[in-house]
Specification:
about 50% helix; alpha/beta; about 15% strand; Rossmann fold; elongated; about 500 residues; four-stranded mixed beta sheet
């Protein structure tokens, strides 16, 4: 039985290696906060969610397939959690079934029988959920899963399993046939079924032994070893077949648990955001290379999870723009806005909801981040060299259709040098078909980009009120030559508006 809840025609592989820039992406977008909210402390959920989010889809149809499953899950959360719980119970329960040896067919068979009997109870409960809930699910993925459960686990099949289990416990002993081989040794052992005969109580009590029979003395160790060997020869093929069957059922539950993990984690996140009054939406994806990008009320989901109250959302109309340049007041929300875009893309391409009232975008073939790093005493070279090395590594891997989130890149050198390098990098990326979202306080860099920009660039600015108040909204606007650092000076040092702020290098 195939689960196919992550992909329409194939299984999700959680063992696929992640890209080498994963650590930087996780650090820059603060994904640990997202993992924690979605997994709620479950290491298995956290691991699967991490793989699912970082192995983004670039096919709008595949994204939509998952979105519809998630909508079903949001409508029926208790049923989805119950199925997930059954899968966990099956996997954990199988580990506890004891076997005294894995080398003897008899022991393998005994454990396989116990395992199948345990699985049978789980399968019956899964079938009951399917019977009860099937009509409520409309998505292709979940409807197909429950249809398969009802079809494959019908009453006849479940009854047949019970009958086989009864026989495989050998209540009448082991019946088998064999041929004489070389040296009068047995060969071609075949396990035989006992004929089904309904006997009365008197017949069972007074039944005579077969005409050709013998008994081995309890003291005959060699004889008992020989009989044990013959019994193992008879049950070996059955033991192997039954173990293969239990392994198949176990693999189904493993796949079910793994692929439901994305949706259970998404339910956890959805409920956490709903408690905070934070909106979510089903994003509208379009193909790789399409320059659609618009949003209403988009916000940083990781920030929303960490703070009390509702965070400020932003509106964005950037259809057809391959370059977004974000400037403005210090601590005005520029980096937060950039992170909100990265998270919205990541969540959209994982096939789940987006942190916004509305979000539509052309999907990317890869998301890269280049953020300013704090000083690191372990660095073997200068901070500017470290920035250049990270950008070089990105250039080696980035390709058309990708997105680059750049936050204060090349700010570790002087403005002239940083602006020259930044302009060259940004223009080369855009010309190569990479979509660039750039946050910078380098006025010269912003002006260079604006001076030669075409209609494919959009300039945004962190809003600042005349009194210096930050609204944490990002609005369309040209770059300004100041980041209004004196606002922070006045706030931190509680300086009056009438007091002249000292300039660096001035004599007093």
């Amino acid at each position: 039985m195939k689960v196919h809840l992550m992909y329409r025609e194939r299984d999700f592989d959680p063992k696929v290696a992640l890209q080498p820039d994963t650590d930087a992406l996780e650090q820059d977008l603060e994904l640990e906060t997202l993992y924690a909210a979605m997994s709620q402390g479950d290491p298995f959920l956290s691991d699967v969610l991490r793989k699912a989010l970082l192995q983004g889809l670039d096919d709008p149809a595949a994204i939509t397939y998952r979105q519809r499953i998630l909508l079903d899950c949001i409508e029926h959360p208790s049923a989805v959690r119950e199925v997930y719980g059954l899968a966990v119970e099956a996997i954990e329960g199988e580990k506890k079934i004891w076997s005294w040896s894995v080398d003897y067919p008899e022991s393998v068979l005994r454990r396989a029988v116990d395992t199948l009997e345990f699985f049978l109870g789980i399968l019956k409960r899964l079938r009951a959920i399917a019977d009860k809930q099937r009509q409520g699910f409309r998505s292709e993925g979940l409807a197909r899963l429950f249809d398969m459960v009802e079809r494959e686990l019908d009453d006849t099949y479940l009854l047949r399993i019970e009958e086989h289990l009864e026989e495989l416990r050998f209540p009448q002993g082991v019946r088998m046939s064999a041929r004489l081989g070389e040296g009068f040794r047995g060969r071609d052992y075949v396990l035989r079924r006992f004929p089904i005969k309904r006997r009365t109580f008197a017949q069972r009590v007074l039944r005579r032994k077969p005409k050709f029979s013998f008994e081995v003395s309890p003291m005959d160790e060699s004889g008992h070893r020989a009989l044990s060997g013959m019994r193992d020869s008879g049950v070996r093929s059955v033991a192997a077949a039954l173990k293969e069957s239990t392994d198949h059922i176990l693999s189904f539950f493993v796949a079910l648990r793994t692929e439901l993990a994305l949706y259970v984690g998404s339910l956890n996140l959805h409920e956490a955001l709903r408690r905070k009054g934070a909106p979510t939406c089903v994003p509208v994806p379009s193909g790789v290379g399409d320059l659609t990008l618009s949003a209403r009320g988009i916000y940083d989901v990781c920030l929303a999870l960490k703070v009390e109250g509702r965070v400020v959302g932003n509106d964005l109309a950037a259809d057809g723009r391959s370059l977004l340049v974000i400037t403005g007041a210090n601590q005005g929300g520029k980096s937060t806005f950039l992170r909100s875009l990265g998270l919205a893309y990541l969540m959209t391409q994982a096939g789940i909801f987006a942190p916004a009232e509305r979000f539509s975008a052309g999907v990317s073939s890869g998301i890269f981040t280049h953020y300013r790093r704090e000083e690191d005493t372990t660095m073997t070279s200068g901070k500017f060299d470290e920035e250049l090395k990270r950008m070089s590594a990105i250039v080696d891997r980035i390709k058309p259709g990708c997105i680059l989130l750049s936050n204060e890149s090349f700010a570790s050198t002087n403005e002239r040098e940083g602006s020259e390098i930044g302009e060259e990098v940004v223009r080369a990326m855009v010309e190569a078909g990479v979509r660039v979202f750039l946050v910078t306080h380098l006025f010269e860099l912003a002006e260079r980009l604006r001076g030669a920009s075409t209609a494919d660039a959009l300039f945004l600015r962190a809003e600042r009120k005349p009194d210096g108040q930050r609204t944490f909204r990002v609005i369309e606007g040209e770059p300004q030559s100041t980041s209004h650092g004196e606002d922070l000076f006045r706030r931190i040092f509680e300086v009056s508006e009438r007091t002249e702020v000292p300039q660096i290098g001035a004599r007093h």
